[in-house]
Design brief:
By secondary structure, this protein is mostly beta strands. The protein has one domain: Gamma-B Crystallin, domain 1, CATH 2.60.20. The longest helix is centred in the N-terminal third of the chain and has 16 residues. The N and C termini lie far apart (about 65 Å). This is AA1-like domain-containing protein.
Length: about 130
Amino acid sequence: MQYFTIAATLLAAVVSAAPTTKRDDVYREVGLSFRSLGPNGEIIGEPAPLQLYTLTNVDNTSAYEIIFDGSSSNIDINTVECQAYKDADGTQIGSAPFTLASPAELATPNNPVEVGSVVCYVASNVNAD
C-alpha cells in the first residue's frame, strides 16, 4: 500500500510539473503587393494581406515581382519570409523564399507569370539589413 501511495504522489508531481501549452489566438498577417505593368506601362501593385502560416490562394494573380507593402499586424515584418507557388495547392514552387529586404523577382516586367498561392512564416534566419 505504501508503494502505491509513493507512486501516486510521484505521478501527481510529474504531471503538475509538466509544461502546459497555451493556444495562440493572436492573428498575424503581412501585406504583400503583386506588381505588374498596366496598359500604359505604369507599375500596378495588387495588394494582398496574408495570414502567417496559412497557404493563401491568390487566384493566379499575374505578377513579375512580389514585394512586402510594409504593413503587418502583430508581427515584426523584418522576421517574415514568404514562398510563392505556381498552383493553389502549393506543390509547384514559383519563387525563391523572399523577405522585406529581398523581394521575389519572378519574371521581367513585360513577361509576368501567374502566382497561384503564397505562404508566409517567421524565419529565424531573416535579417532585414
